Hints:
By secondary structure, the chain is α/β, with parallel strands linked by helices. It is about 35% helix and about 25% strand. The strands form two sheets. The chain has a six-stranded mixed beta sheet, with helices on both faces.
Amino acid sequence: MSDIILKVQDLMKQYGHQVVLNNVSLEIHKGEVISIIGASGSGKTTLLRCLNLLEQPNEGTIIYHGQNLMDPSVDINMHRMNMGMVFQNFHLFNHLNVIENITLAPIKLLKQLKKDTYQEAMLQLERVGLASFATQSVQTLSGGQKQRVAIARALMMHPDIMLFDEPTSALDPEMVGEVLQVIKDVAKIGMTMVIVTHEMAFARDISDRVVYMDQGEIVEIQPQKLLFTNPLKERTKAFLNRFMNV
């Protein structure tokens, strides 16, 4: 289909003799929000990191806008500029203030003018509720505020897909809601997103489809209403029964 942004086919990843991803295939469509759920060690984060080759698969193909990212001739860094990544632990530069953090990549990589970039940066900080913190040191921010800065930084590159790796796992419980709300707001603008999360209610609320992984395999992919109310696989039912009533 023409609206497929990213297609993963028969992906395999091993660390020594340990198989982390086993024959994983997935299609991601433009404007779609996909959540990946599963127990710790199920391969969720490894799959996400393979999508932009932060982890190098052993076998399989990753087709992004018609190009196989596994082809050694492909400039993966160029493609990564179109694939926003939000990590568990923010990865901000502590020696820079908030606006310097989110304008660094557009100025250095996209060669944008500083004046224009700063104007857009204020709009993105307004989007995540941090416009008044623009000149503040990131070291003074709460965890939730740092993650919102990280989201604004990713948006500054105008990605056509955003990857979220457990974006709330490093946060204190009272800060989780503010970050999840920002991600929901980003979804409303039509951003294509793949989210690894352990927040089941959030996955249920935001997703178009949900992927359940176990032991390195995709056990089930369903629209969120079906997966959470009528899962097809016994392994999915057992997992969900540990977290919520289904």
